[in-house]
Specification:
By secondary structure, the protein is of the alpha/beta class. The chain has 6 helices and 9 strands; from the N terminus they run E-H-E-H-E-E-H-H-E-E-E-H-E-H-E.
Length: about 240
């Protein structure tokens, strides 16, 4: 695991944007495509806007990039809460990404069927090979959740490599999430976390006793590389031994 800690959130965003471009170049050179699982939320929205800006947009061969979603809220794609809509608005539309490069969750289906359909989409895209993303982007909730892997939900113990529906009883809503075993097959996983409000969660996930039922982000231990892009505020509770020289 590698920590990238910056004085400001802006520094963390630019560092991850540059790393995104580096990985895209490596993947397209090696395999002819770059396959990404996007995250939802306000932090990645700023990353997507940065990638679509003049500073970065010409550094990637976007026609060779394919986009999946690490999780999705069970809402229509036109809903303000939709991860797809946020990514489309901030990244996909500004870059002119073609529809055939984007794989959204079909939330018109019942939740379980939507998850099954997304699993089939993954299987068809990777055509007989085990699904393996070049990059998975993740955030971190105050409660230690990531993607839609929430504390004390059954999906945390799911050994399959695909998508599953998750019912959040306290909010009475469904979500669709990729499972931890699938996320962990990624060549690279990158967490983007900033702000003092996330410091406690960062410290618990990285330094606390291992308890993935309570802190689901602890499940993320990819076969490839694991990177955390943090600002100083989010890293403020980490011990000095964790901080870069």
């Amino acid at each position: 695991m590698t920590l990238h800690i910056h004085p400001t959130a802006d520094g963390a965003l630019h560092d991850l944007a540059g790393y995104f471009c580096e990985l895209a170049g490596r993947a397209t050179a090696a395999r002819g495509r770059f396959v990404v699982a996007l995250s939802g939320g306000s932090s990645p929205q700023q990353l997507y806007e940065l990638l679509a800006s003049p500073a970065y947009r010409d550094l990637i061969s976007w026609r060779q990039v394919y986009f999946f979603f690490g999780d999705e809220r069970y809402v229509p794609p036109t809903d303000a809460e939709s991860n797809y809509l946020m990514a489309r608005t901030a990244l996909l539309a500004p870059l002119g990404i073609l529809p055939e490069q984007v794989f959204a969750v079909n939330t018109a289906l019942p939740p379980a069927e939507a998850a099954q359909a997304y699993t089939r989409t993954l299987e068809q895209f990777f055509t007989g090979e085990n699904a393996r993303f070049d990059l998975v982007l993740l955030g971190l909730g105050d409660d230690g959740h990531t993607a839609s892997l929430f504390p004390h939900t059954a999906v945390l113990h799911d050994a399959s490599r695909g998508a599953k529906e998750v019912f959040l009883a306290e909010k009475q809503v469904f979500r669709i999430t990729l499972t931890a075993p699938l996320l962990n097959r990624a060549r690279t996983v990158a967490f983007l976390v900033y702000g003092a409000g996330k410091a406690g969660a960062v410290e618990q996930v990285l330094e606390g006793e291992r308890n993935p039922d309570h802190l689901p982000a602890q499940l993320i231990a990819p076969a490839g590389e694991l990177h955390w892009f943090l600002d100083a505020a989010a890293a403020s509770l980490l011990p000095d031994s964790r901080l870069p020289d």
